[in-house]
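## Example pair
The file below holds two records. Each record gives the amino-acid sequence first, followed by its structure token line.
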Amino acid sequence: GNQLTWLNSSVGRMSALTYLDVSQNELTAIPLDVYDLSNLETLDVSYNDIGGLPSDVGKLSNLENLAASEIGMSALTDGVRVLTKLELLKVESNDLTTLPSGVSNMKLLKALYINHNDFATVPSSITNLPVLDRLYMGNNPWSGDQTSQLRSIRDNSPLLAVVTMGPNGCPTVTDASVASWIDGWDASWDAGC
């Protein structure tokens, strides 16, 4: 990063802009004009203290890659529901406990990073993403039986090649075929809870 503390709203007038990476700075806000960049395909606001994304993010109809890791976000706006071209969503290292139902509209989503958050259960909004091939869910305080949601993900995402869940919390997976499908799953996690 460049240790930027503010971003000039004139960036919103760069109508041909397709890639904007302002990650690893000291920003506390992103000007709303940024969300008027209709040609934007990649937006990375990670590692700034912006507290979340506004519903205006849904105006970025051509967005394919959205990274909002470690921004102090406790809820992902439902404005993402219209980002139907999204292929990559990185919201790791925040304080998320759930994802909006609109995530299920992201039928082109290939990679989802929700690791290092506060999920206790696998979000139901990610159980039917047909081209998902990478799912990172490690280091969340899982509790209870996750078998049903994980089975739905496995059955509805045939291209899924990487699934991580991590040892945090006390997840239970009662179906051995589902457990074996998760990278690095260790049945002893269940026993230690």
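Second record, same layout:
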Amino acid sequence: NVVRLTNNDATDKLPSWSSDGTKIVFQSARDGVSHIFVMNADGSDQQRVSNHKLGDFGPSFSPDGSRVAYQSLKKSVEIFEVTADGRTTNQVTSNSSGDFVAHWQSGMAPPPAAVSPTPTTVAPVTSTTRRSS
């Protein structure tokens, strides 16, 4: 059966489940600008965890579910991460070309001035990133 988990006049989109299945992160414009929200898997306890004036997009849970990576529109698009409870936010990238689509990857060193070193870090896809053939 399909169950509606959010109920407001805004667009709620891009849901992503935590690895343990207890939380869902999603993007919503319910406050007039797109922000990142985390809720319990049953739709209860919906909490906004981002707060940039121009909008936040593309949320993704870390593999252990403790953090969320997302894009934020400032002077350019940058990657941020926030604890799943919204208490601590870190800017992961900072450059004029813009960074898009944060993906979590294991075994990578964190970018300079990012979060404390952990086995899993955010790997931004920048406008200058090239894939090998």
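Notes on the second record: The longest strand covers residues 99-106. Strands lie at 12-17, 23-28, 35-40, 47-48, 56-61, 67-73, 77-83, 89-91, 99-106, 120-126.
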